[in-house]
Structures are given as C-alpha cells and as structure tokens.
Amino acid sequence: xxxxxxxxxxxxxxxxxxxxxxxxxxxxxxxxxxxxxxxxxxxxxxxxxxxxxxxxxxxxxxxxxxxxxxxxxxxxxxxxxxxxxxxxxxxxxxxxxxxxxxxxxxxxxxxxxxxxxxxxxxxxxxxxxxxxxxxxxxxxxxxxxxxxxxxxxxxxxxxxxxxxxxxxxxxxxxxxxxxxxxxxxxxxxxxxxxxxxxxxxxxxxxxxxxxxxxxxxxxxxxxxxxxxxxxxxxxxxxxxxxxxxxxxxxxxxxxxxxxxxxxxxxxxxxxxxxxxxxxxxxxxxxxxxxxxxxxxxxxxxxxxxxxxxxxxxxxxxxxxxx
Length: 322
Ligand SMILES: [Ca+2]
Ligand SMILES: [Ca+2]
Fold this sequence. Notes:
Layout: E1 8-12, E2 21-25, E3 30-36, E4 51-57, E5 60-65, E6 74-77, E7 84-91, E8 97-102, E9 108-115, H1 129-138, H2 162-170, E10 197-202, E11 206-207, E12 212-220, E13 228-235, E14 244-247, E15 253-260, E16 263-269, E17 278-287, E18 292-305, E19 308-309, E20 311-314, E21 316-321
Parallel strand pairs: 3-9, 10-20, 11-21
Antiparallel strand pairs: 1-2, 3-6, 4-5, 4-7, 7-8, 10-12, 12-17, 13-16, 13-18, 14-17, 15-16, 18-19, 18-21
One calcium ion binds at residues 120, 122, 124, 126-128, 130-131.
C-alpha cells in the first residue's frame, strides 16, 4: 500500500454476509527491464551499471527512476501508476532508447531493450568526435593510471584500448532517442580562448576544363596538438565532380567519409599520436566539368584535443575554370 492508501481496495464481504468490510490487495504495476551491454560478460560486476529511466505520456515525462542493473542485465521499477507509457532508458556511455509499455491492466510487464549502442563518452546522447577525442586522451591507460577516464572504458575492462574505440566507431554519428524532459545534457562549455585551429583549403585558383584539380583540406593548428576533426565540404556539382576522397595520414582512424553530389562529410581521429602544425586531413580530386567561376567551401567542422573544442575559422576558395 502506498502512503496515499492506493494499491488496496475495500470490498464488502458478501460470502459470509457478515456485513464487515474486507481488504483485497491489488498491487500497482512493476516493470522488468532487460538489456545487453556489448562485449561485457553477464554475471560479472561490469554488467552492474546505473541507468536513467523516464516514463512519459504524450511526450511529457511523468516519472523518473534511477535503477541499477543486476549482474544478469535486468532491472525492476516498482509501484508505477496504471497507464500506458513510453519508457526512455539511458546508460551514461550509451545512446538512449525508448520502448512502449501498457501497464493499465497488468500487474507487471517485461521489456527487452536489446543491446545498448555504446560510445557516448560524455553522456550527451550523441556519438561524435568529442567522444572520440576524450577516448583518445585516455587511450592506452588503465585503472589507477593518471589520465585514465572510466567514461571512455566502454566495455568496463579497466583499460581504454582498441576494443573501446571499436565500440565507439561502430556507432559513430548516431544519436539516441530524445529525452522526454527536453534538455539533454550538452557537452561541457568550451573555452573560446583555445579556439585557435583553422580549417583551410589548398587548391589551384585557375584550371582548364577537363583538368583534374587536387584540393587539400588542412587543419592549421600552430603548436596546438589535435586528436580528432570532423568537417563538411560543399561544392557546386554542376561545375565540379568529386571522384576521389583520400584521407590524410595524420588522423589515420577514419570515422566517417560519406559523399553525395555537392557535399562530403568526413571525420577522423588519431589514437596513438597528437599531430600539430599544418595537418592534411583529406585530399579531394575534382575534374572541372564546365567553364566559369565556382566555389569550394568548408561549411562545417569541429576540431578537438582531449575533448576540448578548438576550431576557429573555416575557409572557402573560388576556382575559375577556363
Ligand atoms: Ca557524446
Ligand atoms: Ca576497455
């Protein structure tokens, strides 16, 4: 019985016809959740992990619970008011997910959330280069060592290594189900005084139709080391055609390289080294299709070192095709 007396129903005893009231216990529903944590072994302590669970109706959060999984990957939430809900679940290093549940007429329900998508090192509900950069900062470190960041130890092995990178890379670029309470967790505010890295374009400014132009996108960092970069390059696909995208050698772990006509998205990072100076991030090969003036522009980007945002300016270049 809850403090407000609900959960217990008063009935009149009709069997003995004594006229005395009797009490029938009708428990409020409970939820039994199951999930899998990739790479980790069930029945080991690494499977015990805190969760943030929110029950919402029509997109509005109604109840928040902070259960911890047992070693077999299950958790229970008791005493839930009878209704239908969307259950939003987040583990700090994984993307959030949702499942519907109807607890209107049942004493309990089971929900299988499947395998969590790991890689959200900074608990922002998105997996991007800020997570990669934090992982890179702790790469090769083990529990107890200076610089070890348990958030980057995605498989809870006690070491940040290539297994953690693999988990992050497999989910790179993805976001979790939105928090029903809205404001989810933004990454720590950046120190703008550290934003000193420019993304630049190196290309010939004039070429003849049919010529193949090589365009190199670089990070100009000065003495600032970097460990990850992401960028978008845009161009006019009626005038230029990108036929090859070649990653640079300095950020040698490519996390994303996708292209549609007119746009290239590219993300890469380094785990073992922290390059600095004039770093070639990628080289693009463009044959010129038509004469006239056209532009190649870096329209978005983010450069990181040990999680800190460093990007200052983005460059564009005008190209004349004769
Ligand atoms: Ca994140
Ligand atoms: Ca690990």
